[in-house]
Amino acid sequence: MKLGILWLCLLLACMGAHAAESAWQPSAGHVQVPLWPGTPPDMQAMPGPEKAQTSAKLLAGKTVTAVSNVSQPTLTVYAPPGKNTGAAVVVIPGGGFEILAIDLEGTEICDWLTARGITCVLLKYRVPGGPYDWHCDCRPHNYQVPTMALEDVQRTMGLVRQHAKAWSIDPHKVGVAGFSAGGYLVAEISTHFDRRLYKPVDAADKESARPDFAMAIYPGHLALEDGKLNPNVPVTRDTPPTFIVQAEDDDVDGVQQALVYFTALKKAGVPTEMHLYAQGGHAFGVRRTDRPITAWTDLADAWMRTIGVLPR
Predict the structure, then answer these.
(1) What value does the mean pLDDT take over residues 307-312?
(2) For 78-116, b where at least 16 C-beta lie within 10 A, e where not — what string?
(3) Closest Cα partner for 236 from 261, 269, 260, 263?
(4) Which of 174, 191, 197, 252 falls 20 to 30 Å from 56 in CA-CA distance?
(5) Looking at the predicted structure, is the pLDDT value of residue 3 above 80?
(6) Which residues contact 135 (CB under 8 A, 6 or more apart)?
(7) Running DSSP on this structure, what letter comes out for residue 56?
(8) Contact 143, 232 (CB under 8 A)
(9) What is the DSSP letter of 133?
(10) Rg (alpha carbons) of the chain, rounded to whole number
(11) Are 49 and 69 in contact (CB under 8 A)?
């Protein structure tokens, strides 16, 4: 299986004159909230301080900002500017567990969601971390549970529900949306919500970590080489309703990721909707181009209405 690290290497290789060496900060009016009151559990050493770098290369006419060396994970709440439906989505950017594509698969996703009355909770989780190993030019085990990142997702789900009233969120309409490696984390939290990987810290960890709905967009790490489902994604009938999008010409993670996951969900009786496109490649986010795949958000809107997350 070809992995997200391929396109990330190309992206990072293009970081040049536009690079910023400071930690990432959200736009004015938004505040990052630390996930953990102290040192995060199972913390590993980072290769350096956090930094945000913007590529010189354009993707769909825009630059891409990559955040690396995240040792202090945060969430940032983006409230709808108009009518609030009460629904919320935790957005999980991709980046091969090496970096976070914080705009392409983060803030731009929040713009799409908030315009539809959905509160967006952008997660800046810890990277680098397994299955990426920055100590060597290797990937020792591409199908392992990404412990640090998954702990951050579990913690975020609890925090969102704990603060649901303050953030004008319906605690029964909290979903997740992830891209590439973030899509893998969508599958992980959809199947690893009943037991925290860490010792509970406070009342937030008593809240349910189960997403009420899930969107896995060009996910990776799901299909083994023999075409079977990654055993670290134990799909059951309790896995939340899921929406999947992938391109058949995705040469990074491959369309088999979506196919294998869809088959497992269907076998378990999980309500699932999948859309495959002939063209689109990998890492297209919500940026508009002349390819049909850029209209996938319209299908996601309709799906969220059919499952009752958005009003019909």
Answers:
(1) 95
(2) bbbeeebbbbbbbbbbbbbbbbbbbbbbbbbbbebbbeb
(3) 269
(4) 252
(5) no
(6) none
(7) S
(8) yes
(9) B
(10) 18
(11) yes
Contacts of 199-204 with C-beta under 8 Å, sequence gap 24+, read 199/41, 201/36, 201/37, 201/155, 202/37, 203/162, 204/155, 204/158, 204/159, 204/161, 204/162
Q: Are 119 and 80 in contact (CB under 8 A)?
A: yes
Say what the pTM is. 0.94
Query: CB-based contacts of 227: which residues, under 8 Å, 6+ apart?
Result: 256, 260
- Reduced to 3 states (helix: H, G, I; strand: E, B; else coil), residue 164 is coil
Please, are residues 235 and 270 in contact by the beta-carbon 8 Å criterion? yes
Q: Closest Cα to residue 245, out of 306, 165, 302? A: 302
Would you state the structure tokens that stand for residue 252, as one six-digit string? 């990074």
The amino acid that residue 235 corresponds to is V
Tokens of 13: 């290789």
Confidence of residue 9 (pLDDT cuts 50, 70, 90): very low
Residue 34: is the preceding peptide bond cis (ω within 30°)? Answer: no
Alpha helices in 192-288 (DSSP H): 256-268
